[in-house]
């Protein structure tokens, strides 16, 4: 069985920057200085990011960020070009579809509503103890869907996605050069196929 394992924010929907904006607003409201590049944290679990940014105030930041995100999504989130078409074409070619996201399940459901995509499996950040870049959620998806890793494909938009896919041994890894200001040259050297949108993934896979 082959599985297409998809990140969600910045991969299927234009929500990576919505998450980033929610973090920025929440940090400002709480008066917490930002000492790291937020772009590099995207793709990690919400709770993990909150702990990195706010230390002992992480729960306060976690709750405020989630409230702000819920307010922003309906106004700002849109599906990426060909996102739904890619999923439908992959299903027609025999792929099972897993969305593996570091976002909370409640946030993921809101983002998926924007795309109109219904995956065979959704694994969210609060479903697992170890999130990306750890391969655990990717391996869990393969196990549940009985997928062969060498036949399976990963599509994401961050270094954390790439690391999780690579460590899980996926046969092909696509990284979308999207909303975040990331240097993807190193990932290309390590085997990632850099694309602009899900439309390019369809073309590369012959979907």
Written account of the structure:
By secondary structure, the protein is an alpha/beta fold. The chain folds into 2 domains: 2-14 and 78-205, Rossmann fold; 16-76. It is built from 10 helices and 6 strands, in the order E-H-H-H-H-H-E-H-E-H-E-H-E-H-E-H. The chain has helices at residues 16-30, 38-41, 46-54, 58-76, 83-92, 105-115, 136-144, 159-168, 185-189, 198-205; strands at 2-6, 95-100, 121-123, 153-156, 172-176, 193-195. The chain has a 6-stranded parallel beta sheet with strand order 3-2-1-4-5-6, sandwiched between helices. Strand 2, helix 6 (105-115) and strand 3 form a beta-alpha-beta unit. The radius of gyration is 16 Å and the shape is globular.
List the defining traits of the structure above.
HAD_2, sugar-phosphatase activity, 6-stranded parallel sheet, Rossmann fold, alpha/beta, 207 residues, 2 domains, 48% helix, 10 helices, single chain
Secondary structure blueprint with pairings:
Blueprint: E1 2-6, H1 16-30, H2 38-41, H3 46-54, H4 58-76, H5 83-92, E2 95-100, H6 105-115, E3 121-123, H7 136-144, E4 153-156, H8 159-168, E5 172-176, H9 185-189, E6 193-195, H10 198-205
Parallel strand pairs: 1-2, 1-4, 2-3, 4-5, 5-6
